[in-house]
Design goal:
The complex is a heterotrimer of chains A (about 325), B (about 550) and C (about 280). Chain A has about 325 residues and is an all-alpha fold. Helix content of chain A is about 80%, strand content about 0%. In chain A, helix 5 runs antiparallel to helix 10 and helix 7 runs parallel beside helix 11. Chain A is globular and about 85 Å long. Chain A starts with a helix and ends with a helix. Classes of the chains: A mainly alpha (about 325), B alpha+beta (about 550), C mainly alpha (about 280). The interface between A and B is large, with 49 and 51 residues.
Chain lengths: ~325, ~550, ~280
């Protein structure tokens, strides 16, 4: 418990660095949020008034202090564009991204773990080559290209699935399911590729360990070796990487979300960057860093449970 | 106000009388026999970004405007030909001194909450709009501080159904501004706003009322059962409005190509402004499968290249003229719009009645002359940049075509791609040499000219800083006759060819796409959908 | 065992190395010669299907896709290479400083690196491009900065694992200056992991550039990157599929070759993973 607290405290400087960096960066970005707000219909006088409304005429340190003061009280401000409270908007978007990413992740893991172990055990065989080649191929495809192909095949040509938009599970389970299949498939392609390669590498590593050789010499069945030794030991380094991958995935689905019209966190942030919606960008990036920190903390806590060597020390 | 006369709008079409109470003819009579016609169901329409708010004219963008003109109605509105007609008003009369407008209201109008529309609601709405605290984006139209100097001095309720607006000076464009789509002025019930003045939601008089708005996903509009339609043909936002569908769902779909696919897949009923690049493919699908329809429309959006006359290089009018000789607007239009749009070098839109043959004439495309003229202007191959962005693909495509033409005529032009926020900020600061740009739809050419003409020391976003032009623009407010208006517009266009602060390219062409089961849909010059009078076939 | 033997050891490595050579040659050819002018508009031959005169067809401006892709090969490779070079050099400096000196410097650098690691790469790049301007350099700097923290972390880890070995201490006792020790003793030891990392980032940079092009902020014209051609061609997916198929294949093929060559490098520097 104390360990958890300590870790959380240690992340505060990181959060501060990120927030200052993001704050300064945004002010360096050319492009005036007030100009976007009024478009070509407004005048320069409007521009000044809107800037004042947005609090953009204050000196920078003052703007930062005001923002930070509110953040400490749990208030991330309101969006320039929509006047929506940033925190609630953010949580709504995050819920969408989380669903898609987690489901894709579970499916990817179910394919990648057996495939990776198989490839690792049969290293340099034809099967291994085929698996590695397939995984590397998937790793080599631009995600929007995969997304477009999936829309073309399943939406336009076959007409099996809706290709656009999102329906909350609370509205209709079947509609929800139909809408997330294709985005999930696009994500699975990439995640599966990364995971397979990782599991394969870990398996090869474990196979070299003495205890596997020893177990084999003792005449333990291959199935038991795989289940008891290889899987268990190969998974622990994978889990560490999972944390990193998951962290980046949660925020990195911007492209997929744009193509499929999912109201997720990545698109929220991209839209905000284009709109120069400072409160949204600052709030979202801070939120992402917090999530990232928490996921890695969770991984560190789970890790000893999986890896006996770490537990002992 | 001794003797009132029936107002004629400056375009010369009588406003009053067209909308008589006794007229009951339905232009859609022929369609009544259409067996597919039915009430009920829902229409799903893709919009490329979520609406910003439900507060008309205050927190707005194009999609917000589109959703809100289904919910609210102003005293006046546009017809398809962009003339102004009464909407909630029944008659409009203008005093002889042209300073007082008297509106009589239709008596059968109800708000979404069941209350009857009266003149006090109109006054309340306008007092709120003119209150600086409301943040109405176009308060400059009416508060005397705008370029036109027009101010609403007083709004007086005469009786329950009569109200007068008193202006400080005559304004031929007053009703036009009132009908504006971007600066909507729908009459609202006071319960739209909480006691402390904060916005609650539009309680208005339109054929649809606001349903659930799920931010980032969709906005749903529900049929207003008690809506009493005005009579007359469905025209613009006036005339007969029948809400066939129970619900209109605007679905947020940022990627228009994906939206197009979802019409193919049958999940969406309508996508407006599909990328023109999909034109051929859609035509093919209509021939082969017949499960979609397309609708073509020339819009009011004006696509241009801006030339910065304060730039050290481009301040030379001769060089600007040389550039004009090097660019063929016809060719740019052909390339960027796949031949779907017509070139238009004048701020007078192709759909405008003022777009006479005179406005089709422009500086000749002549690369050899351009080269000679540039040399004469002292151009020595200095680097010129043209700004563009990828948010609006046509601006990018225009820039590519223009770069190729200019370089072919001996110029040294480079494209600088910015994201839209940066380019727009540069536009406001006048910070560019050439900029591939587009002006959003203005309902009247005079409003478009007024938008880009002015003193650059006052506002850097003015493109055309010429006192003569400015004087002509001031005349607009007095141009109550057609001939006066035509004359001012012609003179301005002639002057534009001398100065070349802007090279006009074309008025945008849009293609809307629907499933073949959608009926009664018609595009109009604003390039945005109207969904009254539209129904979907019953789905088995 | 030389790198050459590793590449020769498996047919797939040999093929991918050969593939990389082909791509590099294509990029060089693009600099010297293209069948058509890659920038010239030609209204009469717009969206022409692949034919004898236009092997890969033409785009909406009537420009020859093959010529554009030959030029684009150079642009894409150059952007990826410069990105990797930038990330490696900045990461190397930061990581070496942190690992070598330790203490407060390490604390600060690690803090900053951790903070940046948490920020999503593409989105960070998007914001940075807005600052540095859309352009080849903007993309390079933005992606370079986005990848730097990963490099710094690996380098710092390697340096820390070297410290207990003692010869750094020995060099210090001999009075060698810090810079000398870093260049002489530390850098050679991190070359292995860095080379592997470089191959990964090279692939990543190519992918990220195409994603940025899709989001509208990739390398701007006149000279197109593959990602840019693909993103532009996307709108004609059904009408003129060659516009997205050929650049898509080019990207997939080069990434496949790069990733497989990366595997070969990994085998070479960390032979435990292969069975030699």
């Amino acid at each position: 418990m104390i360990y958890v607290l300590k870790r959380l405290l240690a992340s505060i400087p990181t959060l501060l660095i990120v927030s200052i960096f993001v704050f300064v960066l945004l002010r360096l970005v050319p492009g005036d949020p007030a100009a976007l707000m009024i478009g070509d219909t407004g005048s320069s006088a409007d521009l000044d008034r809107v800037r004042a409304e947005m609090g953009l005429n204050e000196p920078l340190p003052v703007q930062y202090a005001i923002w930070l003061g509110k953040v400490v009280q749990g208030d991330l401000g309101t969006s320039f564009m929509t006047q929506e409270p940033v925190l609630s908007a953010l949580l709504n978007r995050f819920a969408v991204t989380l669903q898609v990413v987690l489901i894709a992740f579970v499916i990817a893991a179910m394919i990648a773990i057996p495939a990776g172990v198989l490839a690792g055990r049969l290293q340099n065989s034809r099967i291994d080559m085929a698996i590695v080649f397939t995984a590397t191929l998937f790793l080599s495809l631009p995600s929007f290209w995969v997304g477009m192909l999936l829309i073309l095949v399943f939406g336009t040509q076959l007409g099996w699935l809706p290709t656009l938009g999102f329906v909350p599970i609370t509205d209709s389970v079947s509609e929800w399911f139909a809408h997330i299949i294709i985005p999930v498939m696009s994500l699975v392609c990439v995640e599966m590729a990364i995971l397979t390669r990782l599991v394969r590498a870990s398996t090869i590593e474990v196979m070299r360990q003495d205890y596997v050789t020893y177990a084999r010499a003792k005449g333990v069945s291959e199935t038991r070796i795989v289940l008891q030794h290889i899987l268990k030991n190969a998974l622990s380094p994978t889990v560490t990487m999972l944390g990193l991958i998951l962290g980046s995935l949660l925020s990195g689905t911007a492209v997929i979300e744009t193509i499929f019209g999912l109201p997720g966190l990545g698109r929220f942030l991209v839209d905000a960057i284009y709109a120069r919606d400072y409160p949204v960008i600052q709030g979202t990036l801070l939120f992402i860093v917090v999530i990232y920190t928490l996921v890695n903390l969770a991984v560190d806590l789970i890790y000893p449970l999986l890896d006996p060597r770490v537990r002992r020390s | 106000m001794t003797r009132s006369f029936v107002l004629k709008t400056f375009i010369g079409l009588a406003v009053a009388g067209l909308c008589g109470l006794h007229s009951t003819t339905h232009a859609n009579d022929s369609k009544d026999s259409d067996p597919t016609k039915r009430f009920g169901g829902e229409i799903r329409v893709a919009i490329n970004s979520d609406i910003l708010s439900t507060n008309p004219g205050v927190l707005r963008d194009g999609n917000t405007d589109t959703v809100l003109y289904h919910i609210g109605e102003s005293l006046v509105g546009f017809r398809n030909d962009l003339t102004v007609a009464p909407l909630l008003a029944e008659t409009i009369t203008l005093s002889e001194d042209r300073l007082t407008y008297q509106f009589t209201l239709r008596r059968d109008v109800k708000f979404h909450n069941g209350a009857r529309l009266t003149a006090t609601d109109v006054k309340w709405t306008w007092d709120r709009l003119l209150d600086p605290k409301t943040g109405f984006r176009c308060s400059e139209f009416y508060n005397g501080r705008g370029a036109n100097g027009v101010k609403i001095e007083q709004i007086v309720v005469i009786d329950d159904y009569t109200i007068t607006f008193h202006l400080n000076k005559p304004s031929a464009l007053f009703l036009h501004r009132m009908a504006d789509i971007q600066c909507q002025t729908p009459i609202l019930h006071r319960s739209s706003v909480a006691d402390d003045g904060t916005w609650r939601g539009p309680i208005a008089t339109g054929p649809y009322k606001l349903g659930p708005w799920k931010r980032g996903y969709s906005v749903t509009l529900e049929r207003f059962a008690d809506y009493t339609s005005a009579s007359g043909r469905r025209d613009g936002v006036v005339g007969e409005k029948i809400a066939y569908a129970d619900r209109i769902i605007f679905v947020v779909a940022p990627d228009r190509l994906a939206a197009k696919s979802s019409v193919y897949a049958g999940n969406m009923d309508l996508v407006f402004a599909v990328p023109l690049s999909a034109h051929k493919e859609m035509e093919r699908r209509i021939k082969q499968k017949g499960d979609i329809k397309t609708y073509h429309q020339d819009t009011l959006d004006w696509t241009v290249v801006l030339l910065q006359s304060t730039d050290p290089l481009l301040q030379n009018p001769l060089l600007r003229k040389a550039i004009a000789h090097a660019i063929s607007p016809k060719l740019v239009t052909e390339i960027s719009t796949f031949g779907l749009a017509q070139a238009n070098t004048s701020a007078v839109q192709t759909t405008s009645p003022y777009h006479t043959a005179f406005h089709d004439h422009w500086i000749a495309y002549d690369p050899a002359k351009a080269r000679a003229m540039a040399k004469e202007a002292g151009y020595r191959g200095e680097r010129i940049t043209i700004q563009a962005n990828r948010k609006f693909p046509y601006m990018f495509d225009n820039a590519v075509a223009i770069q190729a033409m200019l370089n072919a005529a001996g110029f040294n032009v480079h494209i600088d791609v910015f994201d839209w926020a940066t380019q727009l900020t540069n536009f406001f600061k006048g910070n560019f040499q050439l900029s591939s740009f587009g002006y959003a739809a203005r309902s009247h050419p005079a409003l478009l000219f007024a938008n880009f003409t002015g003193d650059k020391t006052l506002r850097q976003s003015y493109q055309w800083d010429n006192p003569k032009a400015l004087a002509l623009i001031e005349q607009f407010e007095n141009a109550f006759s057609d001939a006066d208006m035509q004359d001012s517009l012609d003179q301005l266009y002639r002057l534009l060819q001398d100065d070349v602060p802007i090279i006009g390219l074309y008025n945008d062409h849009v293609i809307d796409l629907s499933k073949s089961t959608l009926h009664g849909y018609e595009p109009w010059a604003f390039g945005r959908p109207r969904l009254w009078g539209v129904w979907t076939e019953h789905r088995p | 065992m030389s790198l050459w033997t590793t590449v020769r050891s498996r047919r797939i490595y040999t093929i991918s190395a050969f593939g990389l050579v082909i791509i590099a040659v294509a990029a060089l050819i693009g600099v010297i010669y293209t069948p058509h002018d890659p920038l010239a508009l030609n209204v009469d031959s717009r969206l022409a299907a692949p034919s004898w005169s236009h092997w890969f067809g033409t785009d909406q401006f009537g420009r020859d896709i093959l010529s554009r892709m030959l030029i684009g090969a150079g642009v894409s490779l150059r952007v990826s290479l410069m990105t990797v070079a930038l990330a490696l050099s900045m990461g190397l400096i930061l990581g070496a400083l942190a690992g070598y000196f330790g203490g407060i410097l390490d604390y600060i650098i690690s803090g900053v690196v951790d903070a940046f690691l948490a920020l999503p790469g593409i989105l960070l790049a998007l914001a940075l491009i807005a600052v540095f301007g859309v352009g080849e350099m903007g993309v390079v700097v933005a992606l370079g900065i986005a990848y730097t923290p990963n490099v710094a972390r690996v380098v710092r880890g390697s340096v820390l694992s070297l410290r207990p070995l003692g010869y750094i201490e020995a060099a210090r006792l001999l009075g060698h200056p810090h810079l000398f020790i870093i260049i002489r003793h530390i850098i050679p030891n991190v070359v292995g992991p860095l080379t592997v990392l470089a191959s990964t980032f090279f692939a990543q940079a190519l992918l990220s550039e195409s994603a940025l092009s899709f989001l509208g902020l990739g390398v701007p014209p006149p000279h197109p990157s593959w990602g840019g051609i693909l993103a532009e061609g996307r709108v004609f997916m059904e009408d003129a599929p060659w516009l997205s198929i050929f650049p898509g294949l080019a990207i997939a093929f080069s990434l496949l070759c790069i990733n497989l060559c990366g595997d070969a490098l990994r085998d070479y520097f960390d032979p435990r993973n292969s069975d030699q």
